[in-house]
Amino acid sequence: MLISLDKNSGTPLFEQIYDIIRQQIIQGELENDEKLPSKRQLQRDLSISQTTIENAYGRLLDEDLIYSREKSGYFVTSLEQLEPGSRQAATGIVRKKKKHYALPPGTIDTTIVQSDVLKHIAREAFSDDELLNLGDESGERKLKEQIRHYLHINRGVICATDQIFIGPSTEFLLEQALYLMDHPAMTIEDPGYPVIKKVLDRLGSKVDFAPVREDGVDTKTVQALSNPVVHVTPSHQFPSGVVLSLQKRIQLLNHAGAAGTYIIEDDYDSEFRYTGRPLPSLQGLDQNDRTIYMSTFSKVLYPSLRLSCMVLPKRLAELYYAKQLSCNVPRQMQLIVARFMDRGYLERHINRVRKIYRTKMETVTAWLREEYEDVEIYGDHTGMHFMLRVPGTDLRIPAEKHSLVHGSRYSQTEGLRDTVLIGIGEKSAEDIMDILAAFLGDVSP
Ligand SMILES: Cc1ncc(COP(=O)(O)O)c(C=O)c1O
Known about the structure:
- By secondary structure, the chain is α/β, with parallel strands linked by helices.
- The chain folds into three domains: 64 residues, Arc Repressor Mutant, subunit A (Orthogonal Bundle), CATH 1.10.10.10; 234 residues, Type I PLP-dependent aspartate aminotransferase-like (Major domain) (Aspartate Aminotransferase, domain 2), CATH 3.40.640; 94 residues, Alpha-Beta Complex (Aspartate Aminotransferase, domain 1).
- It is 40% helix and 13% strand.
- The chain has 15 helices and 14 strands.
- It has an eight-stranded mixed beta sheet, with helices on both faces. It has a four-stranded antiparallel beta sheet with strand order 11-12-14-13.
- A hairpin with a 3-residue loop joins strand 1 and strand 2.
- The longest helix is centred in the C-terminal third of the chain and has 27 residues.
- The protein is elongated.
- The N and C termini lie far apart (79 Å).
- The chain binds pyridoxal-5'-phosphate.
- Pyridoxal-5'-phosphate binds next to helix 6.
- GO terms for molecular function: DNA binding; DNA-binding transcription factor activity; transaminase activity.
- Keywords: Aminotransferase, DNA-binding, Pyridoxal phosphate, Transcription, Transcription regulation, Transferase.
- InterPro entries: HTH_trans_reg/aminotransferase, PyrdxlP-dep_Trfase, PyrdxlP-dep_Trfase_major, Tscrpt_reg_HTH_GntR, WH-like_DNA-bd_sf, WH_DNA-bd_sf.
């Protein structure tokens, strides 16, 4: 038996011996019931200690790769041979390259997050050894209580703490909600948040589209399709930014109540309303417990936090507990956010940064309206992006050249060819204006 050891490799010698013999057994180089060299012989051949060999043989014995026979020594266990396969070294894996956008919609200004306060609270959470064991699978109660209070005051959501569920993302929570509803066919907005369709395609669910008008999703289409679930973004339709009118909210709720269907209300980006008061949530208006409400901390705190929540109707909430689903968010992170909210930091943070984003939004859009009379702007009353339209102009090539997000990314039809989506979160007003000036310089209406 050939064993060559590398005393400088950093891998303990017993582990090297174990690895070599193991490989030889698995690959059939050592035959079933073949006798292994005695410990003394190996000690002599390799000039190593007896303990090293005992450790290596001990591990092989533990894994049943060898067996010992009293006074005779060690032998290779009879194993079926592993068939050779086509396993390749895991190098050169082909990955789709993530496109880098100059003004993406999902990023924030990281300099205005109170990282000193977060760090302080994080230190407390990570010093609490109680948190090292698993907590409530559906999410930490302290966080749920804070969210219940926050959503009630700010979004008019009416629910019990036990109806709130935590998750790392809206995508994750959507999958859980769809699982609880037995993967229903769904009507979704067009244009809309592409992740919704991605999830439905992945699950093999049927998808229908309802067009978005100036006052929100076309409720006649939703009613005519009457799918078991409709997904809407009423506060700030993604990506158009339009607000679902009160009339249409009532139509959606009445239809869901009468037909026994569900509405998923994704309240993304509703916290940063720059003009007037936002309409309260659909969930708060619902008289029939047909609304699933979803929200995320990605904008009010920061996107990499990966913390979102949903409020389930009573029947689905009970099903969640019965099926023992899990939130999959670390307890420490949940409690950091719970304490941040409990001590009033979140409320103050939102009020402070809303002013910063409002100023930025107003500076950029006022400049555009002043300098470019051919462009149209919409969706700038709320959130951290707006739509820029150059009517009748196909913007695909200039958008590609300037790495801007083209509207067709969100559309199922030929629509939005003359539109780009401008995220204002990350860059300064000056940088945004520089990028847009260069882009519009290349656009001929
Ligand atoms: C409608 C909508 N919902 C949710 C999200 C993001 O959710 P999360 O932060 O939970 O991943 C986005 C991001 O663009 C969105 O457009």
